[in-house]
Each structure stands twice: as structure tokens, then as C-alpha cells.
């Protein structure tokens, strides 16, 4: 097969391992990011994602020459969004080129046409693109880096190189975290960790982008345990395994473990066994009672805690529960971190959760690769209890907002207005968001399949109101929303999505 000669600015299809070809552009890497030694590679930034990677030349195809065939074999929604992003870019680039040609200079001289440089405004942290007439990228000096994320979907019919990613030391860890965000919202690959001191001076916040500093994610060599395979836990464990972590799982309903055992996870017979055999044990369960029972109950985590063992509570619970669990774990010589997550089942599956952590800072650091695998961003908020407080506030706002949107939809209907038109107008204004669009569309379609359980958001509202009472702070909006969710629960909507609060207004 003839060698494909590519230059900076060329549009390509890039493929890695078992993941499907994806549209991207060849760009110049950051100055401090060299390519793997001995590898003929190009640095590619992918459309419709937050991804960028060194891709071997044999895994690259020219975009236009193979476009029709690629579109035939890849039918996913996000794949189509990526292709649309390429086409939109080409239209804008063509328009700029025509404007440039139409102007000319005052003496009628024409500027020689050069191959189009494929660079967007969000590439600010990439070094300036070289002129396409300069030497090929493969002439530059290399050092290792890896991919973050490619989408999933059907494999290609082309004869791409099929060597397993894990067998290549330069391409063995990658983040499956394709985002719904458009290409213009890509985070720069060289983004460093930021630490911000709050006015009180008592709490530090550290935001860690899911893109590792050198563009790769290397799994920790620590043994990971995970307890609870519900809507959120299942996606988290799946991404931990994809990133190469060694994971032992346990779930109250043992059958839920089977799929993950097939994917390479180990089975723990009890929470105590998981905690005793693993270095870091995560827990993600439904409520404060379940969180306490998991630690303090028969064959609970506490029985498996030994000096140096780490326990990370990811459930959304009240600060008092966190304080209790932190105390009993540390009294046994263990190390404790709370790390509840903001997001939904879909974001969990996509590895795009937001992790809010507090407690033992060293445990937070030890969990770095885990947090990068399961989320797009993590924050450290200081002492244990702060993350629980922050998460309850966040969910209080989300729950109240969802109830208000449902109220608006039903009021539109009651006053003879089109609900679809209401949504169309809403999504063109300042409140436009993927959350609003998806939830409202689901409501109009009568689709209340749970992405985040209604009973859980009602629990979070209740806990947030209680937290406000303890702080002598009014929460009237949350209290009103809580009553609507309680009515929805009375209408048997507990196990439906939070958007099912809509039904509380129509019954």
C-alpha cells in the first residue's frame, strides 16, 4: 500500500486499535510534546471531541478520499456530529479564502494560494502551525504520548493496522470520554492544574482537567475496589477498566458484577474482602443509610480496613454521614476521601463526570488516574464534609431548575401555547443547554427512562433543605420544588428520570 504523505493542516481519518476511524486534522503539537521515538506519526486533533493524539501514519487516511465509505460504516449520532463539524469548518474556511482572494492588494498582485491550515480559535495552546510548505511532520524528533479518547462504534472495513493498542508502549492508555461539547470548546492539551485559594483562606480548590499534562493517562499500579454498580457506578467501573486499572467489584445484587467480570474485573465476595485486598476502595450507593450500612454493617468495609488502606465515598450524602464515616475509617488507621460526582448515567458512561472531593489530600492525589478515567474535571475542597455540602447545593439547584422547567411546559399547555415552540424559544436564549433540550424533548416524547433517578434528586433536595436549616439559611425555592417531587413520588415516579417531575403537574 502506497505511503500517504500528510502535512500540517490536512484533514484525515484517524484510527486507534479497536476504535473506529474518526475525522480530524493534522496540527503542530505543543512545543514540549514530542512524538514517540521510532514511530512515524502525525499529531491529530479530532473534530467534535476533546481529543488529540499522536497517530501512526498507517492509521491515517485522507479525509475527502474516504469520506463516503467512512460514513457508510459509521452511523452513530456523535460520529455524524463530528462529520458535520468538519463540513461546517470547510464552509467557513472556503468563505474566508474567497474573501481574501476578492480583496487582493492595491497593485493587483496576488498572494500565492497555499494549502488550507486547519486551525480553530480553540487551538491557542498549540504552537503556531507551520506553513504547509515546510518539512513533513515525520521529520521532527519524538517522545511518547498517547490518545485521550475516540468514539465507539462499528469497526472499519479498511485494512487498517490492527495491532492491539496495549502492545504498543506509546499507545496503551486512552480516555473514552467523548463529549457532547462542540469542537470549539476543546480544552488545551497543555492545561496545568490550578489551585485557587478562597477568600476565607480555609479551603483550596484544585481543578484537574481530564487531559493529563502530557496528553496521556497512565493507570495507577494500586489495586482498586469498587462497591455499588448502579446507574453511576456501572459507567465509572467500565471506564476504570478501559483505562487499564485493576478493579475488584462488589454489588448487593451479585448478578450486576457478571458483565464487569467478563471485561476483566475481579469479584469481591463482601465489602470487607474488597477493602482488605485493595489499596483504594470506592463506594457509590443511593443514600446515607446505604453508605453507613456498607461501612458499618456485617462484613462491611470497616472490617477490612487496615493501616494505609484508602476508602473513597462517592455517594451523595449529608455532611454528618461523611464525618461519621471519616472518623471510623481513620480510627482504624485508614485514609478517607469523599468524592461525590455531578452528572448523569450518560455522563458516567462517557467518562465526563465532575468529581468534587474533600478529605485526605494524599488520597486525592493517589486517585488521580481514576478521576481522569471517570471524569472531565475534579475539584479538591479541603476538609471532609465540604464536598457533601457543595454537591447538595449543586443538586438542589438542578432539582429546582428541573421542576421550574416542567412547570413552564405545563403552563404553556394550559394556556394554549405550543410546548415545542416554548422549548424552541428557550433553546435559542441564554438558558439554552444540552440539559434543557434533552430533558424537555424526553418529556414531550413521554420518555422518562432514568438517567438520574427522581427519588435521588428528591433525597438531595431534602438533605439540602436540612443543611440550610442547620445553617439558619432559608431555602424556599428548594422547599417548594421538594414538595413537587414528593407528589411525583406519590404518583409512582420514584424510579423514573428526574424529568418525570413533569407528571406531578398534570395529575
What does this structure look like?
With 507 residues, this protein is an alpha/beta fold. The chain contains 17 helices and 16 strands. The chain has helices spanning 63-73, 77-103, 231-242, 258-262, 271-277, 288-296, 301-304, 319-331, 345-350, 361-366, 368-374, 386-414, 419-426, 434-445, 454-470, 476-490, 503-506; strands at residues 11-14, 22-26, 41-46, 52-56, 60-62, 194-197, 204-209, 224-227, 247-250, 266-267, 280-283, 310-313, 335-338, 341-342, 353-359, 375-380. Strands 6, 7, 8, 9, 10, 11, 12, 13, 14, 15 and 16 form an eleven-stranded mixed beta sheet that branches. α12 (386-414) packs across α14, α12 packs across α16 (476-490) and α15 (454-470) packs antiparallel against α16. The chain is globular and about 70 Å long.
N- to C-terminal distance: 66 Å
Count helical runs.
17
Basic shape = globular
Low-confidence stretches: 105-158, 161-215
Radius of gyration, in angstroms, nearest whole number: 25 Å
Write the layout of secondary structure elements.
Blueprint: E1 11-14, E2 22-26, E3 41-46, E4 52-56, E5 60-62, H1 63-73, H2 77-103, E6 194-197, E7 204-209, E8 224-227, H3 231-242, E9 247-250, H4 258-262, E10 266-267, H5 271-277, E11 280-283, H6 288-296, H7 301-304, E12 310-313, H8 319-331, E13 335-338, E14 341-342, H9 345-350, E15 353-359, H10 361-366, H11 368-374, E16 375-380, H12 386-414, H13 419-426, H14 434-445, H15 454-470, H16 476-490, H17 503-506
Parallel strand pairs: 8-9, 8-11, 9-10, 11-12, 12-13, 15-16
Antiparallel strand pairs: 1-2, 1-5, 2-3, 3-4, 6-7, 7-16, 13-15, 14-15
Helix pairs in contact: 12-14, 12-15, 12-16, 15-16
Amino acid at each position: 500500500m502506497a505511503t500517504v504523505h500528510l502535512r500540517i493542516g490536512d484533514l484525515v481519518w484517524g484510527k486507534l486499535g479497536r476504535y473506529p476511524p474518526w475525522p480530524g486534522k493534522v496540527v503542530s503539537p505543543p512545543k514540549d510534546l514530542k512524538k514517540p521515538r521510532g514511530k512515524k506519526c502525525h499529531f491529530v486533533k479530532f473534530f467534535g471531541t476533546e481529543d488529540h493524539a499522536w497517530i501512526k501514519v498507517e492509521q491515517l487516511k485522507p479525509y475527502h478520499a474516504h469520506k463516503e465509505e467512512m460514513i457508510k460504516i459509521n452511523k452513530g449520532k456523535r460520529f455524524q456530529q463530528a462529520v458535520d463539524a468538519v463540513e461546517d469548518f470547510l464552509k467557513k474556511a472556503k468563505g474566508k479564502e474567497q474573501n481574501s482572494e476578492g480583496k487582493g492588494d492595491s497593485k493587483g498582485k496576488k498572494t500565492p494560494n497555499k494549502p488550507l491550515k486547519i486551525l480553530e480559535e480553540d487551538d491557542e495552546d498549540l504552537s503556531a502551525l507551520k506553513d504547509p510548505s515546510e518539512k513533513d511532520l515525520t521529520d521532527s524528533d519524538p517522545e511518547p504520548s498517547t490518545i485521550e479518547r475516540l468514539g465507539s462504534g462499528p469497526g472499519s472495513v479498511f485494512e487498517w493496522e490492527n495491532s492491539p493498542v496495549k502492545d504498543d508502549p506509546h499507545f496503551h492508555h486512552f480516555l473514552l470520554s467523548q463529549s457532547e461539547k462542540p469542537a470549539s470548546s476543546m480544552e488545551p492539551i497543555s492545561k496545568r492544574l490550578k489551585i485557587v485559594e478562597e477568600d476565607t483562606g480555609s479551603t483550596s480548590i484544585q481543578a484537574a482537567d481530564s487531559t493529563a499534562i502530557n496528553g496521556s493517562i497512565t493507570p495507577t499500579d494500586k489495586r482498586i475496589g469498587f462497591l455499588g454498580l448502579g446507574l453511576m457506578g456501572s459507567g465509572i467501573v467500565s471506564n476504570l477498566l478501559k483505562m487499564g486499572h485493576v478493579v475488584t467489584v462488589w454489588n448487593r445484587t451479585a448478578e450486576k458484577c457478571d458483565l464487569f467480570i467478563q471485561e476483566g474485573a475481579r469479584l469481591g465476595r463482601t465489602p470487607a474482602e474488597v477493602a482488605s485486598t485493595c489499596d483504594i476502595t470506592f463506594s457509590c450507593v443511593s443514600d446515607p443509610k446505604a453508605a453507613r450500612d456498607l461501612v458499618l454493617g456485617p462484613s462491611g468495609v470497616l472490617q477490612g480496613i487496615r493501616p494505609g488502606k484508602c476508602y473513597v465515598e462517592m455517594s451523595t450524602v449529608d455532611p454528618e454521614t461523611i464525618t461519621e464515616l471519616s472518623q471510623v475509617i481513620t480510627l482504624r488507621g485508614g485514609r478517607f476521601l469523599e468524592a461525590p460526582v455531578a452528572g448523569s448515567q450518560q455522563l458516567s458512561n462517557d467518562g465526563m463526570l465532575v468529581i468534587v472531593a474533600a478529605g485526605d489530600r494524599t488520597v486525592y492525589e493517589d486517585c488521580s488516574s481514576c478521576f481522569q478515567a471517570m471524569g472531565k474535571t475534579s475539584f479538591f475542597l479541603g476538609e471532609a464534609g465540604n464536598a457533601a455540602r457543595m454537591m447538595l447545593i449543586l443538586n438542589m439547584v438542578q432539582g429546582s431548575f428541573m421542576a421550574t422547567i416542567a412547570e413552564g411546559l405545563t403552563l404553556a399547555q394550559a394556556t394554549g401555547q405550543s410546548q415545542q415552540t416554548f422549548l424552541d424559544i428557550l433553546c435559542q436564549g441564554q438558558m439554552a443547554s444540552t440539559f434543557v433540550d434533552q430533558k424537555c424533548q424526553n418529556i414531550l416524547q413521554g420518555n422518562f427512562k432514568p438517567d438520574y433517578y427522581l427519588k435521588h434528586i428528591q433525597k438531595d433536595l431534602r438533605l439540602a433543605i436540612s443543611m440550610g436549616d442547620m445553617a439558619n439559611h432559608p431555602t424556599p425555592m428548594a422547599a417548594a420544588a421538594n414538595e413537587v417531587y414528593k407528589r411525583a413520588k406519590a404518583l409512582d415516579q420514584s424510579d423514573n428520570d428526574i424529568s418525570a417531575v413533569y407528571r406531578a403537574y398534570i395529575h
